[in-house]
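TASK: fixed-backbone design
INPUT:
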């Protein structure tokens, strides 16, 4: 069974007026368009072309949520819990109202993610940079009190412990003078090695004056993805998308701990309990040929990018989605009837073992994971 599914863009303030519209071949929108959800998540289930919403078809059992994501401004710095942490937190906060802005755990699931770039340039912050590299970058800053205090904290003892201490200090509210001092010093920093990262953080600072998350961003890896390139964001990995258009897939969860660049609630103690402060680069996955299966080490979801040029058959295992992001492509299942997929829409396959794609374009196929 194949069903066409669509959804209306969500108008979060950081969204773009042009990226999703441009993908779909229409004029820029009047309001920001941040995300389009393709899934059965109760927060915004996809609409089925024959009527109703996808959760009525699936019973709300999909283990993944597929999205188009378009960022014109940086998202909040955030981290997601492991499944065990989510289960414990959900029980602990069971007495809080669902609308309580201080509630961290909305469900008992983890929320690993994968983002794949569609735009020519997709910028992200992900994971914490090795401390020796950050100290080398900070050497290009003026020797102000705030910069000196940050250097001292980062250089003290074990790297992971030093980073945890620095993040807690920056977000505590007691270091605002030092935060303001470091943000002011960013403008004077000059480093050929870190020029892209510094340019990005300067732009973030302009949009988030006085926000401690600007200094947290200085501690993170700055990553630029090109079309088809991806990063996987495991539980505990601090991250923030900066700008660009991409396809995102994640476990079906709404558990977020925030660490800056947001007016929303920041629970510093819980963030520090969840975040992995081990410094390390985040591997960029590069597309390989006409079909790319992204490396995803969780059982909740799998994602495949298919460049269609004629006809190609792909096997699927479990309820799957085929999201069109370029060109003109049709999808057929066992019944053989070809269903055209408009760019920006998807076909949902409930009980199929394979999909046949015809035409010329780009399709992303989401399904439950295979690990």
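OUTPUT:
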């Amino acid at each position: 069974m194949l069903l066409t599914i669509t959804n209306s863009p969500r108008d979060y303030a950081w969204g773009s007026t042009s990226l999703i519209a441009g993908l779909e071949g229409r004029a820029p929108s009047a309001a920001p368009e941040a995300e389009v959800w393709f899934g059965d998540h109760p927060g915004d289930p996809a609409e089925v072309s024959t009527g109703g919403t996808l959760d009525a078809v699936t019973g709300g059992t999909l283990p993944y949520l597929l999205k188009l994501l378009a960022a014109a401004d940086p998202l909040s710095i955030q981290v997601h819990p492991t499944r065990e942490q989510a289960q414990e937190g959900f029980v602990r906060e069971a007495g809080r109202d669902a609308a309580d802005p201080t509630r961290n755990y909305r469900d008992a699931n983890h929320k690993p993610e994968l983002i794949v770039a569609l735009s020519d340039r997709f910028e992200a912050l992900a994971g914490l940079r090795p401390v020796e590299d950050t100290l080398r970058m900070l050497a290009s800053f003026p020797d102000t009190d705030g910069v000196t205090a940050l250097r001292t904290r980062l250089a003290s003892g074990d790297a992971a412990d030093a980073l945890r201490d620095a993040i807690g200090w920056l977000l505590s509210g007691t270091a605002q003078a030092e935060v303001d001092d470091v943000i002011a010093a960013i403008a004077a920093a000059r480093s050929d090695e870190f020029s892209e990262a510094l340019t990005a953080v300067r732009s973030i600072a302009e949009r988030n004056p006085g926000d401690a998350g600007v200094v947290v961003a200085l501690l993170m890896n700055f990553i630029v993805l090109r079309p088809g390139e991806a990063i996987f964001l495991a539980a505990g990995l601090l991250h923030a998308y900066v700008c660009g258009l991409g396809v995102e897939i994640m476990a079906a969860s709404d558990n977020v701990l925030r660490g800056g660049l947001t007016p929303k609630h920041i629970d510093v103690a819980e963030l520090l309990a969840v975040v992995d402060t081990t410094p390390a680069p985040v591997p960029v996955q590069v597309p390989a040929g006409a079909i790319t299966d992204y490396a995803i080490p969780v059982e909740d979801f799998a994602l495949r990018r298919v460049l269609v040029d004629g006809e190609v058959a792909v096997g699927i295992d479990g309820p799957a989605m085929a999201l069109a992001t370029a060109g003109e492509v049709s999808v057929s299942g066992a019944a053989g009837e070809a269903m055209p997929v408009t760019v920006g829409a998807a076909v949902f396959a409930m009980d199929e073992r394979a999909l046949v794609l015809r035409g010329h374009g780009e399709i992303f196929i989401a399904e439950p994971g295979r690990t």
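COMMENT: The mean pLDDT is 96.
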